[in-house]
Amino acid sequence: TQLLEQSPQFLSIQEGENLTVYCNSSSVFSSLQWYRQEPGEGPVLLVTVVTGGEVKKLKRLTFQFGDARKDSSLHITAAQPGDTGLYLCSSARQLTFGSGTQLTVLP
Amino acid sequence: DAGVIQSPRHEVTEMGQEVTLRCKPISGHNSLFWYRQTMMRGLELLIYFNNNVPIDDSGMPEDRFSAKMPNASFSTLKIQPSEPRDSAVYFCASSFGGLNTEAFFGQGTRLTVV
Fold this sequence. Notes:
The structure holds 2 protein chains of 2 kinds. In chain A, 0% of the residues lie in helices and 54% in strands. Chain A is built from no helices and 11 strands. In chain A, strands 2, 4, 5, 9, 10 and 11 form a 6-stranded mixed beta sheet that branches. A 5-stranded antiparallel beta sheet of chain A has the order 1-3-8-7-6, with no helix packed on it. In chain B, 0% of the residues lie in helices and 54% in strands. Chain B contains no helices and 11 strands. Chain B has strands spanning 5-7, 10-13, 19-24, 31-38, 42-50, 53-56, 65-71, 74-79, 88-95, 104-105, 109-113. The termini of chain B are far apart. Chain A binds chain B through residues 30-31, 33, 40-45, 48, 88, 92-100, and chain B through 4, 33, 42-45, 48, 91, 93, 99-108.
């Protein structure tokens, strides 16, 4: 089973700040997904990355897949309170999830 | 489409009782997943069905847990007998195409065993 480590575990920032969260594995991903989960809801897919070095943008969110396909990062520019939630990475092939980063954006 | 529908949303039961969680996947999806989420262990895959057939049940914790998918539009997860350590949020998700595709999650069932 592929183990996924996410960091930081908790992050609390002010509205307007930038942030980066990370997802790492000791083994190679065939593909990787990022999900966001809000309180009382199930996770919702944000993006899937497949190719090493790939960069995908979703409005203020930038996702990067490491060249060796063992790590990924999510960068949020000018965070807003609506970005608050639990960010999870997933090894799509094995349906294994990391423990997540709980992000709180304060107004 | 209404999305993945789970019932009940909340369940409180006494230790030793049988608990049945229900899931209706999105119409047309051929894969269904059951997950358990706790603070300590995060989101764990319990079992994965493809075309109503269980493909991987290695995540099912023990014999007290069982899952069925009698048809493409319905699945159940049963715990018998339940124990306090089973308290968690249980999610059902479905997808079209199985692994490496987008999984759509239900809102979950919050189970509390006292």
